[in-house]
Amino acid sequence: MQIEEIARLMVLKGKGILAADESTGTMEKRLKSVNVPCTEKNRLSFREALFSAPSMKSNISGVILFEETLKQTSSKGLTIPELIKKNGSIPGIKVDKGAKQLAGSQNEKITEGLDGLRERMAEYYKLGARFAKWRAVYSISSSQPSEQCIKSNAHALARYAAIVQEAQMVPIVEPELLMDGSHSIDKCYDVTSRIISECYKELKIHKINLKGTVLKPNMILPGMNCKQKSSTEEIAKKTIKCLKNNVPSEVPGVAFLSGGQSEIEATKNLNEINKINDTTFNFTFSYGRALQQSALKTWAKSMSETTKIQKVFDHRAKMNGLSTKAEWSENLEKQVA
Ligand code: 5MM
Questions:
Q1: What pLDDT sits at residue 221?
Q2: Helix (H/G/I), strand (E/B), else coil: 47
Q3: Which residue minimizes the CA distance to atom 3 of ligand 1?
Q4: What's the alpha-carbon Rg for the chain, to the nearest Å?
Q5: What is the pTM of this model?
């Protein structure tokens, strides 16, 4: 399949991406929160339950995996990428090596992982991955993010995207402005605009075929500790305006990260965005926490009850699938739950 077709399928209406690419350190935190030891067996058991759920066919276009999971075999003998494909979804892989301290700056991060990436991509392709993900992280303070942080992360994202497309795979470009802090929604709008426009400047310099990419940004939200709360409508309007002004129209779709929003908030905001979408982009989800939280709690309590765990996951996947078509409502949420 050509990359433009893969990208189109990743952002298809009614479906979205499951971000299950938590590194071992992040999984350690997630499993600790539900009092389960973070062993390789447990990480596989939870993930296999999700990847075998009925909603994979109907609502999940792709799954982002951590390298460990890409190389694991499921209890039924299929490799994890084979299992995902069999269940109607596309396997993908997180290829960055994490956000590290940016030299010459205080408390800012640069995402690493470019060395040897070309060789790794060839291996990931053979293992069945058809798209990749690289996440750059930025945060707001009185003087940050700095020009240095914005430019160096955009440059790395573009170099990553070029190597991924060379390997015939779709790069998900993920610049995440963290929600931490007490900044206003307008500050988030301004900073996200600067970050995204710099990314597209670099992607252009690196001759990226934008039709074979997916953008994974944060929504435009007030900081977590901001006193001034925003309505869903304001969030949706500002998110769309920011993307309309900074993302080239060749990009087929935008798959938002949830970034610390609750499951319901993430669904509700996406639904509103699709309700007033006047762009050519397909707006969908690429959620980690907002798709997995409830399922993780259920799994921790009833590990052997796969159907019960999958029911909880299927519900979230279905609700988010509806929100990609602006068909979600609070009533539906209650009826089905
Ligand atoms: C699933 O979490 C991913 C990051 O894991 P590491 O920090 O361990 O590398 C993360 O990139 C994720 O894909 C996005 O942030 C979206 O996840 P949320 O939970 O924000 O929707």
A1: 98
A2: helix
A3: 22
A4: 19
A5: 0.97
For tokens 């992040």, the residue is: 26
What is the sign, positive or negative, of the torsion defined by CA atoms of 19, 24, 29, 32? positive
Alpha helices in the chain (DSSP H): 3-10, 24-33, 40-51, 55-59, 67-70, 80-86, 117-126, 147-166, 185-205, 232-246, 263-275, 289-301, 306-323, 330-336
Quote the mean pLDDT of the chain: 97
Quote the pLDDT of residue 334: 83
Amino acid found at 9: L
Question: CA-to-CA distance for 21 and 19, rounded, in angstroms?
Answer: 6
- Shortest-distance atom of ligand 1 to CA 291: 21
Structure tokens at 11: 């952002």
H/E run at residue 134: strand 131-138
Kindly list the distances between the CA atom of residue 313 and the CA atoms of 165, 197, 289, in Å, as whole numbers in the listed order: 32, 35, 11
Range of 307's domain?
3-334
- Calculate the CA dihedral of residues 138, 140, 143, 149 and round it to 10 degrees: 10
Q: What separation in Å is there between the alpha carbon of 63 and the centre of ligand 1?
A: 12
> How many Å apart are CA 325 and CA 285, to the nearest integer?
12
Residues 148 and 104: beta-carbon distance below 8 Å: yes
Predicted confidence (pLDDT) at residue 337 exceeds the cutoff of 60: no
The count of domains in the chain is 1
252 lines ligand 1 (CB under 6 A): no
166: CATH: 3.20.20.70
